[in-house]
Amino acid sequence: MKTKKLIFQNGLPQDSGTNNVDTMFSSPRKLSSLVVILLFSFLLATLFAQCAKDMLSSTIISSGTQAQYTITQAISDEAQRNTISFDGLAFLTGCVGAQSFIPPGKVADYSGFQYLRDNDPTNMGHNTSFVTIISNNILSILNTSQINLFVQRAQSQIDSINAFAYRRYPLLQAFRRLQQGAIPSGKTQLSEAAVKAYAGAMYKTDGQISYSRYQLFGTVINSLTAAQKTKLAALKALNGIGHWDSTLINPLQALNLNLSQDMGVAVMTYASEMYSWYVGSVSSDTYFCPERHGTYFGSFYLKDWPAMGNPNYTIDETLTANAGQNFLAVLTTAQAAQVSGIVDLQRSALNNIVEKRAAISTELRKFYSGKTASLSTILSLSENYGELDGELSYYYATTFSKVYNLLSADQKAKLLSLVNQLGYVAPGGGFLYSQPIAMPVIPNTDFMFQ
After folding, report:
1. Are 390 and 199 within 8 A, CB to CB?
2. Residue ranges of the domains in the chain?
3. Beta strands in 42-93 (DSSP E)
4. Whole-angstrom distance, CA of residue 204 vs CA of residue 386
5. Which distant-in-sequence residues (6+ apart) come within 8 Å of 420 by Cβ?
6. What pTM was computed for the model?
7. 357: number of CA atoms within 13 Å, CB side?
């Protein structure tokens, strides 16, 4: 893929003098290149870059013999404190390139697939074969016309999906400038209003992607025959993906659709997400893992990068909690209190995020019943959602930067030692989701300061 010009390393860019993000990040690219980037990212994400369950950062509630992960645990003070602390460790030892890494499963994530992963009765949710088993079984049930709908939608969504990832970069850069003290002349601080407005506009793109994707799922679900529904019910009745047939060969191989391997991965991803949506509910659609928000600080890179390209790698489920607690242990009592204090600062916004996700999920489920969801409602709710996520991110960026300015040389050395123990390697460029790319040109971010 032809990537954008590399204009900085590990920090500040030579700003291009424009903040027209749509212009900078929406230039035409060859479809085949976009497919490779998007779908390779999908493959990586579905294998091992989703939020792994953190046994120390989320309290488990038993329901009979089955442990369940819920929104209650995800937004609990303990889970959020550990996650925020891990974000702080990643941000204060990382760079813009590391900050840009994000699993593509964080886009249009209202299918309940994260809930299905975290609550699989057979504990297969984070096994590398989880997606493959689901998709092979579902695609074996669908007909060629239904599968072709997946193919067509994957092609039509690529530009928007990639644009969303590129639009993250100005936020990443503004936060890094704040941490490094590179505030524009005549300005004194990061603008909360600007961050929230920018994030809100960005999330409208996610709303558009979500609307199109769940419209697709609704179309396919409402085209299911009685025989297909019976087969899907039989799969659900097996009570866990570990009980499904894991010997099936990918049905796409026999359909002569002339799909590249990457395009096949996209179709498999849609199949697995549609299944989780089919058997789920608004509650499962609303669910998210603790690190779902404020994803601009490099913790996904620090946690997931060692697993990339290594299908036999298992991410330590206690990593976020342990590393977050180790980060706080390096800080003074006063410094640690500032970081932990974010939990209270964000509480109202985080609760509002849950409400917004529930409202979006409820509206999108109209497609499930054969009705038409309101695009304007989805876009409005998504913008509000983004503003709330921007608020959380503002708290993180400002607090982390204040703490960084208080760190001694010895503390900084100890933090670097912590990330080195986790296998941190500074990236050579940026990421388009989890796919390495040359660092793109980042528009002037002066407008994010006041």
Report:
1. yes
2. 21-448
3. 61-63, 66-68
4. 8
5. none
6. 0.85
7. 27
